[in-house]
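Quick question, first post here. What does this chain look like in 3D?
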Amino acid sequence: MSSPEDSFISHLIEMRDRLLRAVIAVVVLFVLLFPWAQDLYALLAKPMLESLPQGGQMIATEVTTPFFVPIKVTMMTAFLLALPWVFYQAWAFIAPGLYQHEKRLGVPLVITSVILFLLGMAFAYFLVFPVVFGFIVGVAPEGVAVMTDIGKYLDFVMTLFLAFGITFEVPVAVVLLVKMGMVSIAKLREIRPYVVVGAFVIGAIFTPPDVISQFMLAIPMWILYELGIIVASMITKPKPDTEAEPDYAPMSESDMDAELDRIESDPSDAKPHDVK
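> Answer (accepted):
Ran it through. Tokens below.
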């Protein structure tokens, strides 16, 4: 019989193997995509370049930026492509310790999480970026040429990708909270006004100061919150109250008199009996 120390070490070894497989997948995809690093960056920079005036361009203010920025974009792309495999490795590690009903819930949630995160990034790239960059270029003072540093641009778009990717995970978070019993569906509906206000606050923090982009983050978050409530209510069945105590009925005055008479007539048996 294996000792707790052996079991703990075996789990560490398995975690190391799973993590190594995930890293290898990302590295392999990175090596395969490396020849197209410049093209991948050009695709990422396309929304900004299309918003610039005729002849506008981006700049690099540091010596190594033109080399490292496309490398970072390629690494990000490799990680996104390997995301299903990475999640599978994480799932294969934790699945043996889960109950059967948790496994049935876990697989759809993992798949849905990946899809929603990618949808959030696509929403930001195709819909939000043109609005944001058009606003930034449009409010530039006369005589000021907008030439964004490519390193700063990458940091900016990564922040928006992360913000919209996490925003699109709201339904998964709502379903998990309900299934874990941490909050009820009625409570989620009750706090709806606070969620709406919070969505607009988050939109104001993570988007530029234009109202349109704030709405483009807040409105989807609110809609996805409502979607999460609908899905949670569909997959959560109310538990039958099988263990409810029967209604308590106090003894009537005649029953109490009869019980007292019985105790007085037989003092040795002081334990009360059920009165039929």
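Residues 128 and 222 are 17 Å apart (CA to CA).
Residues 241-246 have pLDDT under 50 and may be disordered.
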